[in-house]
Amino acid sequence: MKLVFAGTPEFSALALRAILAAGHHVELVLTQPDRPSGRGMALRASPVKELALASGIEVFQPPTLRDTAAQERIRAVNAEALIVAAYGLILPQAVLDMPRFGGINIHASLLPRWRGAAPIQRALLAGDADTGVCIMKMEAGLDTGPVLHSESLPINADDTAATLHDKLAVLGARLIVEVLGKLPLPFHPQPEFGVTYAAKIDKAEAPLDWRLPAVQLARQVRAFNPFPGATASLQGSLIKVWQAEAVAATGASGSVVAADKHGIVVTCGEGALRLTELQKAGGKRLPVAQFLAGTPVRPGSSFDLPY
pTM (2 decimals)? Predict the structure, then answer.
């Protein structure tokens, strides 16, 4: 099929790679403008742009698709379908209506649960037992379109946003190739019940509130790995917590009841959280034994409670 592909991060790049491997003709790739990145804040191309250029595909990086000239550039391709995966820009209805099969989106949740920007993190935060990928027909609403194909995936107890992202990216790449090979497919409207929204992750959500149950904080650590990283404050010093597990212990919220090579155990509103991988500001991510060698933490000390 002759396609236009719209995507930006690595999640999208896996789908584009699979589409190309399946023999489809991607005539144009849309991706967000290059962004400053790294210590030097040099402009960096998105993973999708890097793959497109390496594959000899024309790349278009408009700041908006509401512009008439941008729309005409897409229309000129005369594509059969527009494939969208984590693109990051709003697609006007005029653009979605251009291809014969319209806009087809790869969404990393089991719709209608977790419509929106951060379905992977929100599923982990909520303690969902499973998630999945939906291939859906795009329309004006936020992830409201009918589903063409879907498949579920269990969420393991040790999954982080990073590991779950990678699994869902592989699943999404496989499903979009399956759908493209079977078009046209029947649409399945989303149920009206069970709708939830996955708001974008905000750095303000990063601090661990020790007054909450340990199980909830453990989910927060997993959901915010790798971004933005769950944070804790110890006597005014900021620490990122990358791995932790809920354990049984009691005491005042934020109190350290054990600190050894097995972990730093901090009591919570219910139970306790054992911290096993941490990072000081400006430092490296370290297993707890190495962290304690450079930053002594003693039983009886307390982590600060957020306001």
Answer: 0.94
Distance (Å, whole) CA 179 – CA 15: 12
What digits encode the pLDDT tens for the residues 109-156? 999 999 999 999 999 999 999 999 999 999 988 999 999 999 999 999
Homologous superfamily, domain 2-198: Formyl transferase, N-terminal domain (3.40.50.170)
Residue 227's pLDDT is 94
- The reported pLDDT for the residue numbered 39 is 66
Is the pLDDT score of 27 beyond 90?
yes
Domain parsing of the chain, residue ranges: 2-198, 203-294
- On the question of pLDDT at 92 being above 90, the answer is yes
Three-state secondary structure string covering 171-225: HHHHHHHHHHCCCCCCCECCCCCCCCEECCCCHHHCECCCCCEHHHHHHHHHHCC
Which CATH number is correct for 203-294, 3.10.25.10, 3.40.50.150, 3.40.50.300, 3.30.565.10?
3.10.25.10
